[in-house]
Design goal:
Layout lengths: L4 E4 L7 H11 L3 E6 L13 E5 L5 H14 L5 E4 L14 H29 L3 E5 L12 H21 L5 E5 L8 H4 L14 H10 L10 H12 L7 E2 L5 H9 L2 H13 L11
Parallel strand pairs: 1-2, 1-4, 2-3, 4-5, 5-6, 6-7
Protein name: NAD-binding protein
Pfam families: adh_short
Organism: Mycena venus
């Protein structure tokens, strides 16, 4: 019997996707790991990993990657849409092109995968689609508006997809991580524009990039997160929704409060002066 196939996007070194690969392999899967460049996945060296360059913002790249997988295998058993793009900064300071890049990656990237993969999965009726969203898709926080919006769209799309996939016998899982250890703060950079209305909040805005990686925020180890997610996904009855990581409990409480109260509390926290040395490169 051939090994099951997992197709995971966003598998660059040091991220959630790379950790997911290791745990799928431990479960006996062949993993097709993708990123925009194969070189970005140099740490993935297991013999059960097949590395492909796939850009989820490009229609042809996505279609070609999936065609190659189906040419080499009997089909994809688990699709994990993990590729993501983060942007920090007030909405008024964010160039339109930058906002589109966030949405193209985080939302339309998943849409492209679904359009190409789910019709093929429906013919087998044995497959699972997993969307990696964010707790910020459920309750917005300041200074990362396009990221919030892209994840909110992803959540709504995934919930609709789940209902519409029921007659196709394709399972759909939405994962909403909280704070997970990653290299996002290393890759991020932000400087308040000279003409910004938010110059007095520069420290707070920069702090957004780093706070999710701190003990104060309850950051969860990437490998621990991946182990739980893969364990749930590969179970006989995977959950429809899964949320874990730092700040998830507090976010759950905020969601139950009146919306105006929750927003007031979040804005109050966003305006707090961060501890020295925690709002920019160390």
């Amino acid at each position: 019997m051939s090994k099951p196939i997992a197709f995971i996007t966003g598998c660059s070194n040091g991220g959630i996707g790379a950790a997911l690969c290791g745990h799928f392999i431990a479960k006996g899967y062949i993993v097709y790991a993708t990123a925009r460049s194969v070189e970005a996945m140099s740490d993935l060296t297991d013999e059960n990993v097949r590395k492909l360059a796939v850009d989820v913002t490009d229609d042809v790249s996505v279609a070609n990657g999936i065609k190659q997988i189906y040419a080499e295998t009997e089909g994809i058993d688990v699709l994990v849409s993990n590729a993501g793009y983060s942007h920090i900064g007030p909405l008024l300071d964010t160039p339109f092109e930058e906002g589109m890049k966030v949405v193209q990656t985080n939302f339309f990237g998943f849409v492209r995968l679904v359009k190409n993969v789910v019709p093929l999965m429906a013919k087998r009726q044995l497959s699972t689609v997993v969307a990696i969203g964010s707790i910020l898709g459920e309750m917005a926080t300041p200074f990362q508006g396009f990221y919030n919006a892209s994840k909110a769209a992803l959540h709504s799309y995934t919930e609709t997809l789940r209902m519409e996939c029921q007659p196709l016998k394709v399972k759909v899982v939405l994962v909403a991580p909280g704070s997970i250890k990653s290299n996002i703060s290393v890759k991020s950079a932000y400087t308040v524009p000279e003409d910004s209305f938010y110059g007095s909040l520069e420290k707070q805005i920069k702090h957004v990039m780093y706070q999710s990686q701190t003990k104060d925020y309850g950051v969860m180890d990437t490998d621990e997160f991946a182990a739980v997610v893969v364990g749930k996904i590969t179970s006989p009855k995977p959950p429809q929704y899964l949320s874990l990581g730092g700040f998830t409990t507090r976010m759950w409480i905020l969601k139950w409060l009146p919306r105006t109260t929750a927003e007031a509390l979040i804005w109050m926290m966003a305006q707090k002066e961060p501890k020295p040395g925690t709002y920019g490169p160390m």
